[in-house]
Amino acid sequence: MSDMNQAIQEKVQAWLQDASIDEQTKEELRSLDNSPAELEDRFYRDLEFGTGGLRGLIGAGSNRINRYTVGKATQGFAQYILDVHSKSQAEGQPSVVIAHDSRHFSPEFALEAALVLAGNGITAKLFPSLRPTPQLSFSVRSLQATGGIVITASHNPPEYNGYKVYNASGGQLVPHEAEEVIALIQEVSSFAQVKRLTQEEAESQGLLVWLGEAEDEDFANTVAAASVNPEMLASGAGKDVVIVYTPLHGTGNVPVRRVLDKLGFTQVHIVAEQEQPDAEFSTVKSPNPEEREAFTLAIELGKKVGADLLMGTDPDADRMGAVVKDANGEYQILTGNQSGSILVHYLLSQLKSGGKLPANGAVVKTIVTSELGAVIARHYGVSVFNTLTGFKYIGEMMNKFEQSGDHTFLFGYEESYGYLAGSYARDKDAIVASTLIAEAAAYYKTQGKTLFDVLEELYQQFGYYRESLISRTLKGKDGVAKIQSLMTDWRDNAPQEVAGIKVKEVEDFSTGLYGFPKENVLKFILEDGSWFCLRPSGTEPKIKVYFAVRGSSNEESLSTLGKLQDEVMARVDA
Fold this sequence. Notes:
The chain is 41% helix and 20% strand. By secondary structure, it is α/β, with parallel strands linked by helices. The strands form 4 sheets. The protein has a 6-stranded mixed β-sheet with strand order 1-5-4-2-3-6, with helices on both faces.
C-alpha cells in the first residue's frame, strides 16, 4: 500500500476499522494489499450520482456499488423523501416502491434499500422478484408513493450494478431534485449514521410490504390498453404474425408475453437459451438490443419459424430492439431511430384514421434523436418537443403537459431504443414498445407489407434520414480526464467545416441553452442540415459521438454519413 497516496490509504484504513462494515468486505480489501492500482481505483472518489443515480462496478470500496454505498445513498434519499412528504402536507406515511433486475446482488441491494427506508420510518413496498423498470415507474404512480428505487445497471456488462431513484410522478430525478439528494447523501459522513431495521422488525412494524400479482396484472392491463387499433386485434390479426422474442436473460420475459397474449398474439416464439434470468448474461457479449450480436440466437430461431418480427429487450426491460425482413427476405436490425419513426407513423396514422388524434397532441424526443420522427409528427399536425438526452426529461415534459393542459402527450422516444406511449409511466417502456411494434406488424401484414416496406415508404416520402452512434470507452481516472480534455478542445477549437460542408451553428448545452439544465454536450449543425454531437455518457466511462444526415437517396445518405464519421472520429481519436 506504500505506492498509494496518503488520502487513499486513509480511506482504505477507515473501511477496515469501521465496526459497521462486515468482515467479508474487509477481507476483500485486505486481499488487494498487493494491488495498489486496484485499491486506488476503488477509493480515489466516492461513487457519484450520474444521469440517473448510482452505477458502478460491484465490489468493496467507496467507488464501487455495494451494500454500504447503497445504504448511504438510501439514507440520503430517505431524508429527501421525508422532506418531500413534509412539504406536500400529505396524510399518512411516506412510501417508496422498490424493484430490481436479474443482476448480481440486485435482490440484496433492493432489500438493503428497503430496510434503510424502514429505519427512517418510510414504508418500503418491495417486489419479491425481478420486475421491469417501467413497472416500477407505473407502480410509484398507481400506488401513490412518495418515490421509487430500482436496482439495475440496464444493459451494462455483468460486473456492474446500479441504483436509480424516482420522484412521486414516477420519473427519474431531474437535476435540481438530484442535487438535493446528493447534498443529503454527502451529509452522511459515516456508515454508522445509516438507520436500518432488520427484515423482521420492518415487517412486524408494517414498514416492509411485499407487492405481487395484483400489481403485475394492473400493469399488464394498463399496457395492453395502450393499443391504438384494438378492433383489428380483436378480429384476430395478431394470430397471423409470427414473432420471435428474447428477454436477453432479463425482466421482460413474463410481462412482454403476458401483454402479447392479452392482445391476441398467439405465434410468439421465445429464444429458449435467453429466456431465464442470468446475471452473467452468458449467451451474449453485452445484453444490449442496440447491438447486432445480441440478436444472433433470435435470428437463427427467426429463420427456423419464418418470423415476421424479432424483438429483444434489455435486462431491466426499458429498451426494445426490433429486427425485420428486408426486400430480399434477410433480417435487418432496425436502429432506435428507425423503430421510433415507424412507431410515430403507426401511432399517429391510427389515431387519425380512428378520429382520436387530439388537436393539441405532442411527441417528445431528445436532441440526439433523428429528425425523421419529428417530420412525420408534424405531417400529422402534432407538435414536437426536444429535450436533453435522458428519459427523465421526457417524463418532466409530460408532467408539464399534465399540469398546464396545453398539450396531450402521445409518444416519447430517444435514439437509444427507449419509447413510451400513454401517460401511465414516466420512463421508457420496452413492454409497450414491443406490443405496439407487434401491433404495427400485424396491421401492415393485413395490407401485404412488412415493417421494412413501411420504413422505405417513409424514406421516399420524407427523405432518407440516416444516423449512427460511435462510442469510445476510456476507463478509470485517466479516462475521465481525457474525455474532459477532448470536450474542451472541441469547444475551444470548433471546426469551420467538416467533410467539405460548412458548420452553420454550434449548440453548446453547457451554457443552459433553450432553458435546459446545463449539460456537457456539443452539437455541430452543418449547412446541409446534417449534424453531429459529442456527449460524455453520464453512466459509463464513454464519450458518445452521434451523427445524422438527410439525403435524396439511400446511397447519398450513407456516403455523406461515412465521410462525416471518418473526419470527426479521426480528430476524436487523435
